[in-house]
Amino acid sequence: MEKISVGVLGATGMVGQRYIKLLENHPWFKVTYVAASPRSAGKLYKDVVSSKWLIGEEIPADVANLTIQDANDAKLAVGKCKFVFSALEMGKDEIKALEEAYAAEGIPVVSNASANRWTEDVPMLVPEINYSHLDIIKKQQEHHGWKKGFIAVKPNCSLQTYMMPLHALIQAGYPVKRMIVTTLQATSGAGYPGVPSFDMIDNIVPFIGGEEEKTEKECLKILGKVDGDKIANAALPLVSSTCTRVPVIDGHTACVSLEFDLPEDKKPSLEEIEKIWTSYKSVPQELELPSAPVHPIVVRHEENRPQPRRDRETEKGMACVIGRLRKCAVFDVKFVALSHNTKRGAAMGGILNAELLKSKGFFDNL
């Protein structure tokens, strides 16, 4: 099968680098275009990132000698790639306008950025959960007059720690009314250079700007439904979150307590909850997408797991790992969950979105 040529916007940043590395030897996609800020434009990729390559191993040889283009000029990508991954790092208004400019040029955008997450006709995808939101893309194209281009985004990285277990329970007939979530988020989530080392060593920072709003609201769009020319948010669950930064490199952890929207005699047992989680599969697994985990949710029984250093690479960094499932004295149940924030929560999650789009025919006529 001939590989689809793809571009990476923001290719020199941490998430952009992760895209470059994860796409090396991908069975469907090949990086043929890299773009970044004007100060990097015109230089070879290896010359710009060699001193700040953060991913480990070597820069992929087929990307190292690509010339970086100016990401601000969407026309430069025309004819050089079929679609782009957006890992742009700039103001939200700038990103929103720029992603729309690429879509207007007939280049679909698979984005990691938050700028278009709340655009009503842009799907915010977790492929196992809301694959049906792809139906909104046709309406999005009609709205803008785009024939081939469109925008699809992924949610905030911290949501990956609990969205699949939450969806699994709801899908099984156990709706959730309320949740309290406390996240312990890795330093890599702040990008590079990120949080100053003096603030993180021997310390925890109990605030991350904008994270709590994302954690509390984005889940409602993901659990919502396509309604005409927009995605209508779900009404529940109500979520209260506290987001903290902890001295861990990779791996976001969440401590979750939840209450079911059911009479007491209809609520699931701990054994039933675990069965629901361990048997959970969805469209990415059915289609055997290259980046999809075989087991999206993995449950551990050790009393001190999950742990970022030990468990973040489970299923190649694409699983939600859960432990400490137990009764809650205030709500119904509580547990600890972990996901890899720069893989499932960032670049590899974006790649899985692109694989879903390809498998559903959205790249057929590019």
TrEMBL record:
Keyword Amino-acid biosynthesis: yes
One GO BP: lysine biosynthetic process via diaminopimelate
This protein's UniProt keywords: Amino-acid biosynthesis, Diaminopimelate biosynthesis, Lysine biosynthesis, Methionine biosynthesis, NADP, Oxidoreductase, Threonine biosynthesis
InterPro entries recorded: ASADH-related, Asp-semialdehyde_DH_CS, Asp_semi-ald_DH_pep-lack, NAD(P)-bd_dom_sf, Semialdehyde_DH_NAD-bd, Semialdhyde_DH_dimer_dom
SMART domains cross-referenced by the UniProt entry: Semialdhyde_dh (SM00859)
Stretches assigned to the Semialdehyde dehydrogenase NAD-binding domain: 5-137
Keyword Oxidoreductase in record: yes
PROSITE patterns in alphabetical order: ASD (PS01103)
One GO MF term attached to the UniProt entry: protein dimerization activity
Active site as annotated: 157, 252
Domain of life of the native organism: Bacteria
EC number: 1.2.1.11
Pathway membership, UniProt: Amino-acid biosynthesis; L-methionine biosynthesis via de novo pathway; L-homoserine from L-aspartate: step 2/3; Amino-acid biosynthesis; L-threonine biosynthesis; L-threonine from L-aspartate: step 2/5
Family annotation (Pfam families): Semialdhyde_dh, Semialdhyde_dhC
Biological role: Catalyzes the NADPH-dependent formation of L-aspartate-semialdehyde (L-ASA) by the reductive dephosphorylation of L-aspartyl-4-phosphate.
Family: Belongs to the aspartate-semialdehyde dehydrogenase family.
Name of the protein this chain belongs to: aspartate-semialdehyde dehydrogenase
Organism from which the protein derives: Treponema rectale
